[in-house]
Amino acid sequence: MDHKADAKSMLDDRGYSGQLIRGQNPALLFEKAVRDRITESYYWKEQCFALNAATLCDRAVELTFVGGTYGQQKPTPWLCLAFKLLQLGPEREVVLELLGPGGEEWKYLRALAAFYVRLTFEPADVHRTLEPYLEDSRKLKRRKNDGFTLTTVDQFVDDLLTKDRVCATSLWKMPTRQQLEDLDLLEERVSPLGEEIDEIDDDGDEGGGSEVEEVMLGNGEIEGERRRSEDGHD
Known about the structure:
This protein has about 230 residues and is mainly alpha-helical. It has twelve helices and seven strands. It has a three-stranded mixed beta sheet. A two-stranded antiparallel ribbon has the order 2-3. A two-stranded antiparallel ribbon has the order 6-7. β6 and β7 (about 170) form a beta hairpin. The longest helix is centred in the middle third of the chain and has 14 residues, at about 90-105. It is globular, with a radius of gyration of 26 Å. Residues about 1-5 and about 210-230 have low confidence and may be disordered.
């Protein structure tokens, strides 16, 4: 009962005096219908009671998929923990610890921390913090309304950076990376594939010169070879 009352008091702006995110109660970053389903769910009542940042990690390492709501709009454990993280409002250093070293060992913890970063950090900081994880190709299982699909950590992070809605949550409208670059808030991002692309371009230049298009005929003979033979060449 106390746990439910604590959740309800957080959702009541009249009694809320905690940390604000962009001027508002962080719990309100989730839509009301989703908040209600979370606070009424069995997982929230039984598994999120009295959690702090450290004990939340114990719950997060048990996660086996990401996702928003499913079935009859039932919230996933992952979404419940994301809401609890908003309620706790951990220090920046704690969040980066969950995202980095913690996330290196537990991929669903990384996804959880990345989601929190997207919701609470400032735009340029969101990009600076999350873009290094666009190289994390580990697979994630994602709960959808009608079953499971596979994604990867880097695709999940890309969704956070480019989409307006992820895991049953409407994300606040963030300036694009190009807009942030134009405002000198971010430096141009160098793709990790840049050197590989340059090498491909170099290989293409070295293989320049005239090329003879060779077309395979139905009998297996190459068109280019037949033409050379007809011209009297071996």
